[in-house]
Amino acid sequence: MRVLFIKLTSMGDLIHALPALTDAQRAHPSMSFDWVIEKSFSEVALWHPAVNRIIPTSHRHWRKNFRASLKNGEIKDFIRAIRAEKYDLVIDGQTSIKSAVTSLLSKGLRCGLDRHSARESLASFAYQKKISVPKEMHAIERLRLLFSQVLNYPYEQTAPDYHIDQYDFPALTFALPKPYIVLVHNASWSSKLWPEAYWRKLTILAAESGVHVVLPWGNSEEKLRALRIAHNQSNATVLPFCRLSEHATILKNALGAICSDTGLSHLAAALNVPSVTLYGSTSTKLIGTQGLYQNHLRSNFACKECYKTLCRYNDTRHQEPLCLTALKPETVWEGFRHMVRSARS
Questions:
Q1: Which of 134, 151, 168 is the last residue in one of the domains?
Q2: Is the pLDDT of residue 330 over 80?
């Protein structure tokens, strides 16, 4: 059976999809998937053995540069690629307007969530087979349940198996001092950013324990943030720009990770790297990391899980999210040390 899977972005959401692919391949060993995925995150699809073909898309770029992308043939090439095969099933795992439109371009029975379950209710009108999945379930479980109903196998609520631990991630072209931990300081929302002064304090606490810290980044703003955190800290290294597969190698060889709520925190969980992840504006019940040795530190602030990209506590815009400032570096470090001890034992 040939299945087209549509899940475009973002990194954490893509990693959430991996256990559903594992379930499906176990239920139907001969099944293979072609995956429509944002080009900048396409390495995630490479890691899973159930994926046969990757169809990269650049929706974000096309939206900003539509005329140029249409003129240079990028959009036409994408449409040609997605229509090159006739699929038994097409599964939209994102259920947004853009992913639904993408499904309409394909050849095959279009499947997705109904209007009460979809991320954007209008997306459901694109699907010929509609599935109901409770919105209060974790994102990983929602996808696993969607796959089981579309592909007709029993859903078992077991621990998620991302099935990427056997992938041959690349060796690094640079050396890192050991032991080291990864400080995932970046996030897409300012309401998810732990104060820089707290990250700097963590590097001091790590140094007192004889541990080096490495700081990843993905864009110029994040790089500047990493440089400020590492400034004058002899045990801190700002990484060079790395591909996602190189980040996986770095995480696999780390003592552990301390993370903001962002894509790399979910990659750490998928690799069973002992981690502490900090949550304020988002819900661990809906999108928290899932894997071995995961510790979610949540603020007890009154307005936590607000799902606002900016902190507007008491109708005032705050430079730093007040909920996360309540999580002190000493508490985070002790939680991390406990998690590492648990993993070792």
A1: 151
A2: yes
Question: Count of CB atoms within 10 A of residue 169's CB?
Answer: 20
Tokens 């050991």 correspond to what residue?
178
In this structure, the answer to whether residues 185 and 314 fall within a common structural domain is yes
Is-above-0.90 flag for pTM?
yes
Q: Is the pLDDT of residue 136 over 90?
A: yes
Structural domain of 218:
180-344
Q: Assess whether 144 and 209 both reside in one domain.
A: no
Order of strands, edge to edge, in the sheet holding 129-131?
51-57, 32-38, 2-6, 86-92, 107-113, 129-131
pLDDT at residue 254 is higher than 90? yes
Structural domains in the chain (count) = 2
User: Looking at the domain assignment, is residue 161 inside a domain?
Assistant: no
Tell me: the pLDDT tens digits for 71-102?
788 889 999 999 999 999 999 999 999 999 99
| CATH of residue 278 | 3.40.50.2000
DSSP 10-52: -HHHHHHHHHHHHHHHHHSTT-EEEEEEEGGGTHHHHT-TTEE
91 sits in which H/E element? strand 86-92
Whether the pLDDT of residue 126 is over 80: the answer is yes
The whole-number pLDDT of residue 115 equals: 96
Query: Cβ neighbours of residue 178 under 8 Å, at least 6 residues apart?
Result: 212, 253
- 69 shares its domain with 206: no
Q: Could you give the 3-state DSSP secondary structure of residue 92?
A: strand
Q: Are residues 10 and 105 in the same domain?
A: yes
Question: Do 85 and 38 belong together in one domain?
Answer: yes
